[in-house]
Amino acid sequence: MKATYFVNAMVMLESRHSRVLCDPWITFDETSDSGFFNFPATKLTRAEVAALKPDYLYITHTHPDHFDPTTLRLFDPATPVLIARYDLDFTRRSLAAVGFDDIRPAPRGEWLPLNGQDACWIEPSAANPEVDSVALFRLDGKVSVNANDNVFNRAQCERLRAAAGDVEVGFLPSGLHGPWPMFYDNLSPREKAQAAAEREARLKETFANYVEAFRPRFVVPYGGGLMCGGRKALNYRYSGIPARGDAVRHAQARCAFEPILLSCGNSFDFDSGQRRGSYVEHSLDSEAAYVARLAAKPSKFDPGGAFHVAAGERIDLSRLLGLARANMRKWQQRYGGAAAAATSCFFLDVGEARLYRLSLAEDGVARVAEGDIADPRYEIFRMPYELLLGLLTRHYVWSNVKTQQVDYYRKGEFDPSLLLLMNYLQI
Question: What is the pLDDT of residues 239-248, one digit of tens each?
Answer without folding.
Answer: 999 999 999 9
